[in-house]
UniProtKB/TrEMBL annotation, chain B:
This is Sugar-binding protein. Pfam families: SBP_bac_3. Keywords: Signal, Transport. Gene3D superfamilies: Periplasmic binding protein-like II. It comes from the Bacteria. Residues 1-27 form the signal peptide. The keyword Transport applies. The keyword Nucleotidyltransferase does not apply. Residues 81-304 form the Solute-binding protein family 3/N-terminal domain. GO terms for cellular component: extracellular region; outer membrane-bounded periplasmic space. GO terms for biological process: amino acid transport.
């Protein structure tokens, strides 16, 4: 993307001064009969002037080239954030979420046994379809050297195996044999211990790419800014010298060049700073809370899976109750995902409201979980199952669903924030590269024209 | 499941020992040999399960009594419910029918008989699913009155809980796919991947065996069946009763003939609750003599093993 913009001025523009001026200067140097490159360039005042003008024009063009290159590499990075790495990171979170949801839903369907509802069956197959489709999409969007590619390949291979194990579990369960439960626990162990870890790695790979793109897009173009300052200083110095030598206050060409360079430099500095600040906001007020909300949603699914699997295990192990304790602490404990999301959305009343609602839903969930757990401990398995997977406003499922929808609403809000702030960042520098290119060419032309007029006065 | 008559015959223990030592296929168990008198041969050696320190008579138990004046029996009567620790994942023994939600099996029949005898109603029972490693803590904490959960009676456990009379005899067996070349715990199993439940007798037995190769420990013996179906293990070692339950869920498997040791299942109660153990022994006595034991056996175990069975004999201590 950056290459056509940078090569244009480099190959075309310098050809003029470099081709014209020395060619004019050279025959005169030869006519003067004095040898040596330095004396040829600086031997007489007009030559010195000409040399200075050429150097200043070259410097102006270099400033232009550097600006165009640095600005467009930053806007490429910003484009990557908006069109590539943020969607990929979000897709990776969606893959993660649909896998975790598939596992949770499979356990719910299993607990419903012969009475598995159409809604649960549809949700499960949608989860598998979504994960599969997003994996294919992610594989297509990321190159073969992409760090996420290895996880995508693994997940693609394991997904059908997982789905097969779940179907075997259900078939065994319909036969009325306990083996079905063991199959489901085996399938879930594959999911929890292998596939979700891989999905997490994929998500981390995509997120770190997002962070890199952010850093690239946000960094200020120090080289261009520095060169711009040097150019301005040299232009002013050249005018002061010319004033001392000729006693003319203004050289129109040089004044024009100085004005162009000043505008280009200010535009560059201000435009990039505004863009960086918008980008920074799009991260802290959009992408970062969104990532946290994604984590919270996934953690909530893990809690729900542990709760369901505890019932699937039918008292054969205490591992799932332990898992519930650990996962729910990660979700809602001190410094957990919900607490962090609350902190990150503190500047956004709408999102904060949703996160607070999610926290309230979790507390409801936790207390209903305790009631169901007590029933199960007391041998009332039927009540524990209907409290856990049954539908109705007073069930765990209702609390979990409302927690989920609060988190989704907050996430949608953060996604919209991200998009609008990132778009503002992009538009802050949208005309900067071509504008700076034109301004610096004009500055170079101004230098050459202005100084040549003075040189002409020597003839 | 082999019949138990042959176990009471002189010389059979030599065969069993030979099985342990040489591990050749034991093919001669005859279903017809169930006619032996209940008197047990003196001096018969039990092949102890590994991991048990031994030193006790596994068939010894308090004399049966129908008295209900003891504290532990009174507690159950006052509550009006018998709280039993059971398994809901052991096919044929204690399992939940996923479609009806009913918990049933050989162990559950016995629990119902206990409730009928003590409380006059088979439904006055709270069935609590307890994980394998929670069986003893559940009794110690008073969470359950009895544990009827394929619970092996051994000498180490006698220090932690009290046992009723034994109600079933079994022994460790090897479960393999039908086309397997494994003939026992011998050179034919060497190099194979063997699945056992963590902390089980089978695991201990494998540890001491010179033929142990690639062990695959799992949480629950049922997980072994999953792994075997997925081709991740070649053989499973578990006790014969549970092996029968696994075999019943997958007819493409077979149980290698011959047991690797001798074990008894008994009802466990809190340590020192001898009044309850005596009451349970009285129930067991009539459960066996009234033919209920045999009916339950015919219903759950016989269809899978194709072999007749008889309850082990009790040695009453007073």
């Amino acid at each position: 993307m950056a290459s056509p913009a940078t090569t244009g001025p480099v190959t075309r523009q310098p050809a003029g001064p470099r081709g014209d001026v020395p060619r004019q200067a050279a025959p005169r140097a030869g006519a003067g009969g004095t040898g040596g490159l330095s004396s040829r360039l600086t031997g007489t005042p007009p030559r010195r002037l000409q040399t200075t003008s050429v150097l200043l024009a070259l410097l102006a063009l270099l400033f232009g080239v550097l600006t165009v290159w640095q600005v467009s590499s930053r806007s490429t990075a910003a484009d990557n954030v908006i069109n590539h790495s943020q969607p990929l990171s979000n897709d990776a979170a969606k893959i993660f979420r649909s896998l975790a949801d598939a596992d949770t839903t499979a356990a719910t369907g299993f607990l419903q046994a012969g009475q598995e509802t159409a809604a649960v069956r549809t949700q499960y197959s949608d989860d598998i379809a979504t994960a599969s489709q997003l994996l294919t999409q992610a594989a297509a969007q990321s190159g073969s050297d992409d760090p996420g590619q290895q996880w995508i390949t693994k997940l693609n291979a394991q997904l059908p195996t997982y789905a097969g194990l779940v179907e075997t579990a259900k078939a065994d369960d319909r036969q009325g044999i306990p083996l079905g439960g063991a199959y489901l626990r085996f399938a879930s162990a594959q999911m929890q211990n292998q596939m979700l870890d891989e999905a997490q790695s994929l998500y981390q790979a995509e997120s770190s790419r997002l962070d890199n793109d952010y850093a690239d897009a946000r960094s200020l173009p120090w080289a261009a800014l520095g060169l711009g300052v040097v150019l301005l200083a040299l232009l002013v110095r050249a005018q002061i010298r010319l004033f001392h030598r000729t006693n003319r206050v203004f050289n129109l060409g040089l004044v024009f060049a100085t004005a162009c360079a000043t505008v280009a430099l200010l535009w560059l500095g201000v435009g990039q700073s505004i863009s960086a600040s918008y980008l920074s906001d799009s991260d802290s007020k959009g992408a970062a809370p969104l990532q946290m909300l994604n984590q919270a949603e996934i953690e909530a699914l893990k809690c729900r899976a542990a709760e369901n699997l505890n019932l699937v295990a039918r008292g054969s192990t205490t591992a799932y109750e332990t898992a519930w304790d650990a996962e729910s602490k990660k979700l809602a404990g001190a410094g957990g995902y919900l607490a962090q999301a609350q902190q990150m959305t503190s500047g956004d009343a709408a999102a904060q409201g949703e996160v607070n609602a999610a926290v309230a839903s979790f507390h409801t969930w936790q207390s209903r979980h305790d009631v169901a757990h007590t029933a199960n401990q007391g041998g009332d398995y039927g009540t524990a199952v209907s409290d856990t997977i049954g539908s109705g406003s007073g069930t765990i499922d209702a609390a979990f669903t409302s927690l989920n929808s609060s988190l989704s609403a907050a996430a949608a809000n953060e996604q919209a924030q991200f998009t609008s702030l990132a778009d503002s960042a992009r538009s802050a520098t949208s005309l900067l590269a071509p504008g700076a290119g034109v301004l610096t060419v004009l500055a170079a032309a101004g230098v050459v024209v202005g100084v040549n007029r003075r040189v002409a006065e020597y003839r | 499941m082999k019949t138990f008559g042959w176990l009471r015959r002189p010389g059979v223990w030599a065969v069993t020992s030979a099985l342990l030592l040489g591990g050749f296929a034991f093919a001669g168990s005859s279903a017809a040999e169930t006619n032996t008198a209940p008197t047990r041969q003196a001096g018969v050696q039990i092949v102890r399960a590994p991991g048990d320190s031994g030193g006790c008579d596994l068939q010894a138990t308090v004399a049966p009594s129908t008295s209900e004046s003891g504290l532990d029996v009174q507690r159950i009567i006052a509550r009006g419910k018998l709280v039993a620790g059971i398994d809901t994942n052991s096919y044929l023994w204690g399992f939940r029918d996923p479609n009806s939600g009913d918990i049933q099996g050989f162990d559950i029949d016995l629990v119902r008989a206990l409730a009928t005898a003590i409380l006059g109603d088979p439904s006055k029972v709270t069935l609590l699913a307890v994980p394998t490693d929670q069986r003893i803590p559940a009794l110690q904490s008073g969470l359950v009155d009895v544990v009827v959960r394929t619970f092996t009676h051994n000498c180490d456990r006698e220090k932690q809980v009290s046992f009723s009379a034994d109600y079933f005899q079994t022994g460790q067996q090897i479960l393999v796919p039908k086309n397997s070349q494994v003939t026992g715990l011998n050179s034919s199993i060497q190099g194979r991947r063997i699945c056992t439940a963590k902390g089980s007798t089978a695991e201990a037995l494998l540890q001491t065996s010179q033929y142990k190769s690639q062990e695959v420990p799992v949480e629950n013996q049922l997980d072994c069946l999953v792994l075997m179906q997925l081709g991740q293990v070649d053989a499973t070692i578990t006790d014969g009763a549970l092996a029968a339950g696994l075999n019943a869920q997958d007819k493409s498997l077979k149980i290698v003939p011959g047991t690797l040791d001798t074990e008894f299942y008994a009802v466990a109660v809190k340590l020192g609750a001898t009044d309850l153990a005596a009451r349970i022994n009285a129930v067991l006595q009539s459960y066996i003599s009234g033919g209920d034991w045999q009916r339950s056996y015919q219903k759950w175990i016989r269809p899978t093993t194709g072999q007749d069975g008889a309850p082990p004999t009790a040695h009453y201590t007073r």
